[in-house]
User: What shape does this take?
Amino acid sequence: MRHDRLPDGFGVRIDPRVRAYSGGRILIGGSPARLLRLAPEAAEMIGDGYLEVDGPKSAVVARRLLDSGVGNPRPRLLPSPKDVTVIVPLHNNVDGLIRLLAALRGHNVIVVDDGSDQPVRIPDNRGARCRVTVLRHDRKQGPAAARNAGLRAATTDFVAFLDSDVVPRSGWLEVMLGHFSDPEVALVAPRIVALDAESNALARYEHTRSSLDLGRRESAVQSRGLVSYVPSAALLVRRHALLAEGGFDESMQVAEDVDLCWRLEREGWRLRYEPAAHVAHDHRISFRAWFGRKLFYGTGAAPLGERHSGAVSPLSLPSWTVVAAMLFATLSKWGVFGGLLTLATALVRLRRVFAELDNPTRIAAIYLSRGFFAGIWRLASAMCRHYWPVTMLAMLASRRIRQIAVTMAIADGLADWFTHRDAGGLDPFRYVAYKRVDDIAYGTGLWVGAFRARSLKALKPTPPSS
Assistant: This one.
């Protein structure tokens, strides 16, 4: 674990979703949600929700805010873009490479030709816009091996990994570089947006709900957090941190990016998701290619489950949420009574956590209700996505389960459409249809991967971390 001090001038802004109580001495928020107690002196430093590091004490408070997830970094110092080498793993996508190089003017670029059918040649007029070095593998070794080859060849302090099917938007690098003024940050990722957002209905769905797009909310990247990993399609990393970890795991053909994030986290490094930086991705928008890619992503859960036990669980809910949901699902008088009793018991326990606040019962009830309904939606999502084969078998066995499952599948899809309705412009019927097929594809891959690995670790629910 490193204990490098944040530099003077580094800022931390309290996340707008965080709630402050007792004059700012108690903060509730973050992901996973937690209660953070601050000394009066520390609360006074934050003032109107912004803290600027100006000495050892404020640096300690700023670090605590960042690590608890209630604050977001606002760095002022940044390394130079000249300290970055761009690494592009490539296999048979020369057109995409040329398009990418056109957007990388002035950068040092290492292209790793991973056994393409025809060796890659960089046209002079393209190479003049950025300094390009080509490395070649005589046979295909996979994207992890290609990225590692570029990593070893680079000499700069930072490396940016960009796949050949992406195009970075203006300012992408500078926005992310600022995070490295925190000496404990090892990796920063941009938001992946759609290169083609309108050509057909599937393109509009992917523009809204791509597996690579992690949304508009900035966040720390933590295995059990809101953003649990970031995709390797576009990454900016501290080179010596990645070398110390041995780079990407070359034995993994899928989910090697997730594995890297979790290994860096385990070693005490901080990782950030920066949605203000945009990199456009050429999504698969033919149905066969799209379905196959979703299924392929699902197969990555099993090898992750073997390497990171518990972290890849598809469902993590408090026991009281599961018990209450099951009791309510019986739709009987005693079931409803039991569900209400379970929630009341949880409320009493949660009230003790907020005992020092004004009106602790009201605050506990608010957070209990939020947690319960969020848990219900996670349960519905898991039934439709990760456990859909089990749900289908249960539907065949019980009419009541069939009614509940259909209702939850429609409600989950409509709620998701309502959340994203302004982004893609799809009507709710087609959106819900694509969402359910998306879930079936990923869930199928999850079960296929578990069968191949002869392991159910990637399917096992786990309790939430404390």
Observations:
- The longest helix spans residues 399-424.
